[in-house]
Amino acid sequence: VQLQESGPGLVKPSQTLSLTCTVSGGSITTNYYFWSWIRQPPGKGLEWIGSITYSGSTYYSPSLKSRTSISRDTSNNQFSLQLSSVTPAHPAVYYCPRGSSVYTFGAWGQGTQVTVSS
Q1: SS3 at position 18
Q2: What is the per-residue pLDDT across 67-110, written as a single tens digit (0 to 9) for each?
Q3: Of 34, 55, 58, 96, which is most buried by a Cβ count within 10 Å?
Q4: Beta strand spans in 1-118 (E)
Q5: How far apart are CA 12 and CA 110, in angstroms?
Q6: Range 3-21 average pLDDT
Q7: Burial class, 11, CB count within 10 angstroms (exposed 0-12 / middle 13-18 / buried 19+)
Q8: How far is Cα 50 from Cα 64, in angstroms, rounded to an integer?
């Protein structure tokens, strides 16, 4: 399976960050995979943002839940992230891995850099 993140590399403060992960070589509806969004700020560790399952159920990090929405487009085999109210403190590389739970990740995309700046 291959995963490819896409979206704007630059977002203005207070705006909503929107990213899409396009999956090839496997279906996002295949039992029993979780499709996640993770970010890594410069010099810091990985932070799980949330996941959407093969059946469409969603799980979010408690610290980000109020600002996060993950959805999917099964016809195009894609899933997306919307993160609202971004601040300059939130630049990071965003990844969309596949896993067997919200805590385990196997295949990864190459990541996409997002900068928050006016």
Answers
A1: strand
A2: 999 999 999 999 999 999 998 876 899 999 999 988 889 999 99
A3: 96
A4: 2-6, 10-11, 17-24, 34-40, 47-53, 58-60, 68-73, 78-83, 92-95, 98-99, 112-116
A5: 23
A6: 95
A7: buried
A8: 9
